[in-house]
Task: structure prediction
Amino acid sequence: MNGLHRRTLLAAALAAPGIARAQEAAWPARPVTLVTGYPAGALTDTATRAAAERIARELGQPVVVENRTGAAAAIAAAHVVRARPDGYTLLMGAASLAIAPALQPQLVPQDPLRELAPIAHFYDTPFILVLHPDVPAADFAGFLDLARRTPGGLTFGSSGIGAVNHLMIEMIHRASGAPFVHVPYRGAAPALVDLTAGRLPAFLATVSDAAPLLADRRARAIAVTARERIALMPDLPAMQETLPGVQASFWQALFAPAGTPQPIIARLAAAMRAATADPAFRAQWEARGLVMGQGGPEELRALLTADLATWRALIREAGIRVE
Result:
């Protein structure tokens, strides 16, 4: 290698950090893509689009939502994991990130704590335990007692094998000893059709799915899976009041590919916090049963770490498998 070539390489190496810092300072210089694993029109999608609009206002660049559905949102997550870590491709990840590594370890990301960079917690949505009006249980304790007295166990529907509400059924069973017959559906909609028709006694529905059924008394609510009672239904007891430690929610949160520069992560976290702290934005989504998050990267990392441990242990102990 001649001297000129060596000097050229050295100059390029010395200049690289400065170029990288300049690019970070100029970010975002073009639109940002926010990938979601859920279909257009679903609450998960409409909330993501609302967040994207609010983040765009903070960044001064459009944030374009891209739907990449399939494999329990793993297709979207894998796309972002493999994207350049430059802040222009982001993931609106969900609780499935904490479930898939134990349930479907062949999917990407296999280690979301290593393959993704947490940015900010967007929201939680707890589940409401809804019953057909004819089910003879006045409260959660009565529901558990009814399950114990039902030969073979009480039928309990979920949105599908490995969904958060399926894992909650297992959590309730393990904490109470009450037996259940799990019936997995392809999503909440068909399960709620069967519940209102009297073919399914019980289901864990999100607040937004439960609300219209409760309003016209096609279903009854007896408990919520949140850590504590929720503002939207203050008279509805939390399951923890009967079974301490039994709580979980579906959540969504903002992630970037691992290796995304920290200044970009910080700007995105601040933009998300501005959205979730805005009173009008909070009121709009809390009216639909969402509980706005406030945490940044460290809080989101702690949430994901705890959920990974909880669901890994439960899936292993219950022997849950995707057929």
